[in-house]
Amino acid sequence: MFRTALRNVLAHKARLLMTVLAVMLGVAFVSGTLVFTNTISDAYQNSSAKGFDQVDVAVTPKSQEDEGNTINKTPELTQAQLDTAAKVPGAASAIGVVSGFTAMADKDGKLIGGGFQSQGGNYWGAKDPRYPLTSGTAPHGADQVAVDSETAKRAGYKVGDTIRISVDGPVLTPEITGIFTTDDGNVAAGGSLALYDTATAQKLFGKTGTYDEIDVKAASGTSQAALKSALDKALPTKLVETETGGKLADDQAEMIASSMSGLKQGLLVFAGIALFVGTFIIANTFTMLVAQRTKELALLRAVGASRRQVTRSVLIEAFVVGVVAGVTGLVAGIGIGAGLRSLMNTLGATVPDGPLVISPGTIVAALAVGVVITMLAAWLPGRRAAKIPPVAAMSSVHAKATTKSLVLRNTLGALFSAAGVATVLAATAMDGSDGQAPMGLGAVLLIIGVFILTPLLSRPLIAATAPVLRIFGISGKLARQNSVRNPRRTAATASALMIGLTLITGMTVVAGSLQKSIDKMASAAISADYIVSMANGNELSTDVDKRLDSTAGVTSTSPLRNAPSRIDGTTEYLTGVNGSAIGELTDLKVDSGSFKVGGDQVVVDDDTAKSYGWKAGSDFTVHYEDGKAQQLTVAGVYQGNELIRGIMLDNKVLTPHLTDPGDMQVLVKTADGASGATKDKLEKALGTNPAIKVQSKQDLSDDIAQIFTLMLNMLYGLLAMAVIVAVLGVINTLAMSVFERSQEIGMLRAIGLDRKAIKRMVRLESLVISLFGGVLGIGLGVFFGWAAGELLGAKMPTYELVLPWARMAIFLLLAATVGILAALWPARRAAKMNMLAAIKSE
Amino acid sequence: MTTTPVAGRTTTVAARATDLSKIYGQGETQVVALDRVSVEFRQAEFTAIMGPSGSGKSTLMHCVAGLDSFSSGSVRIGETELGSLKDKALTKLRRDKIGFIFQAFNLLPTLTALENITLPMDIAGRKPDKQWLDTVIRMVSLADRLSHRPSQLSGGQQQRVAVARALASRPDIIFGDEPTGNLDSRSGAEVLGFLRNSVRELGQTVVMVTHDPVAAAYADRVVFLADGRLVDELYQPTSEGVLDFMRQFPGGNPQTTEFDAKGRTS
User: Which PANTHER family match (chain B) (predicted)?
Assistant: First the structure.
């Protein structure tokens, strides 16, 4: 049996080509993901392990729980503690670490990197073992800085240059005195690092005389564990925590591995979608091969092969196909993995160097996926093959699908679809998170139902194209009839395309609607012209508000100052605002009371008010950070949103209680409104600071739009694989059809249909099938998008469904393009067919 | 050329091959399928082409019908010389001037009987001549089967649809490639009767390749091929006469299985 199966595979090489390609692409996606994530994860782990070379034990402050009405701030590590640590038995040296944010500008004044990975720190002593200098000298004093070599290279800085930097407010222009290399994980991942001498770093980061961490190096002969226990004895363990460098490196490695496994799982989901689409092609191909070999298989049965043997022979064929696809897919996947890494490097996302990791697990997974998917998909056709009666060897009639099975199929499909629609609709009526599970279940049911129903749906939907196809005369008529000739095959082919388009459309609908609603939220609640914030989301110096306020042309400003407090024994964050200006800078809907902030009058958002049971006129006591208490009165309750929420009180009341005030944002209203000139003026007023973003509402919208566009483009890219596999499916189906209908095509040529018309006939059939899949996919996608939006909308008052008509038209066009492209080769083959041979072939 | 029904025989030539040769391969492996064959098919005449296996009878028909290319010589359908025609013009010629009947019926399973009959006109984008269509359909007695699909028809009925399809567009000449090869003798006789009637009553020109002396006896004239050459012809043949004639050739006994199996060149 094995030999027969192998011969069959070889005999049908060409016909199996598309199947192999489809499985191969899926396997390549899987193995590429595994190779890429393993490689990256490995490289990061190596580089982070190296980053802990200088640390035998790290001492960090212990964060304190808030109790009762007091805010317990996390203590800072003192100089005394550092001195103690350096002198414990077994300690060779101790380094006090100070770190914070430092934005560096390139020579054009633009921020280097995205802001989130822009870090600053201290250069310890005369020669810091963590940061070997490659050129220049260590920084000394407020006017000197050292820059990591990667950043220096990227921006073209060298020793002696002046650089514009910013920590939390004013721009500084120190001189670069040194360039260093580092194993710091953040820098290895493409971030930047600026180093000051310790006193300067402490001053800049607001940590005068204190440290964020103490790294202790063990004397030779002392183990990390021994050093740790010595430190635990010497230091107040209520205030500090100690951990060995080995443990920290392990923890970090684990964290990297788990964050990578998130990425891996995400990618594998898309690989799974592509593979799932591939199963349709496999099933189609094997169904056809079995149908073509009915006589041969019946003969095998007639001469004594058992049903099981017939099934097995089909499965062995599938096995061979799976192995071939698995091996080629693995090779392609390794290529993809290597290619992705270099692509990331050229795109600027620095990935630490390391060898390409091809683990045994990857190889096993690739082969297993290829073989299992192919054999699973070939299982039904294999069973159908076994059902061929021996007598079929004598008759020329191919086994035809009985009407009974289609009746059963349609009933089943209708039940699934109805259950799916009902579940999804029920889920939309539920509350946000409760509805997620039922909605997912309903979506799966509905998709399965539509799969099962596609043969039934194909007839009316394709019949609807008749008026258009009539333009193409006989080619159009024949194409339409050919496309419904084998409804199951057409359905499977169209379904493959449907899956990809359902996901693409659904995501586009949700993303578009979300973007609109967030946009609306931001623009509706804010009437300020500009919102000023830090590039990395850190707090701005209070200086920023003062400067903006005194800038010519600015009519009013208000910071949004964030401060913790205790109310009724729980921690609540207060928002300090400029009470006299906040009314005209925001446009919040007031549910009750009046929007009045000043003195002991505060406004509260509806959610907070509800949770405390406050109404306009309620009084409550707030305990500030410094331990003082005050009674405040709720003047009004407003509708909060993602941007502005919480208890708003006047800064005149709040700020005296804060030791280190900082602002999340500053809202600015100008006399002339938002314009390029105004923006320039504001930026100039802030000293053209690379770390500070001055954004109009339009900029904010653009930012939001950009995030969504990026996210959507990534999803499109990932789903493209599923669409490519679907294209292979359409090619496969057409090639099969052309092959099976060669006699007809030969006859049509003989009685006078020219090559062009034959080509047109195949192309139109392809177009009809693809558009059928496209319409189903876009329809389902819109439905799912709408349903998911109903869930999201329960949480977001501004949510509204946005139907991306232009995009949907593009997707339909995409489906049409898929159809045209897929038909290129089969149509040519059909047109080139030798009509004499075709007429005679049976 | 006229296509109006003409009773009796005329001398107008519907198709003509002159010194027609068809050679496959080159040098040592060269096979001469047709060797300088010259033959005329007159209008309103029913001609059968016969010959033993490998004699080149199918090749002759394919070349004259514009289905296959030839190596040298000339083929004319009416006034049109086929040798100089490109595929496109050749296709158009087949569409407009030639009708075909194949051994395996070759109907489109997706079309009804009527749609299959009017297919050549649909391809040409012409409206069928209603009156003529009725005449043809009545002649092959398919009036009550027009909305059936091929799978719902018997073999004989399917071939009658094929005959009607060939007649419906009123071609200058109809070629049949073993049109009764897949039929039982009764259905075969019916189809041959229709073909003969179309010649006698409608003035149609029909050329048919067959290996069956009984089928050949329906023709007005039989031309015999052997080894790619035209060897003889017979007018008003009877099946006995054809059979006697065939026995003259080596391996030419039409009743042998060998003849059946290899009777068609491909």
Answer: ABC TRANSPORTER RELATED, IMPORT ATP-BINDING PROTEIN
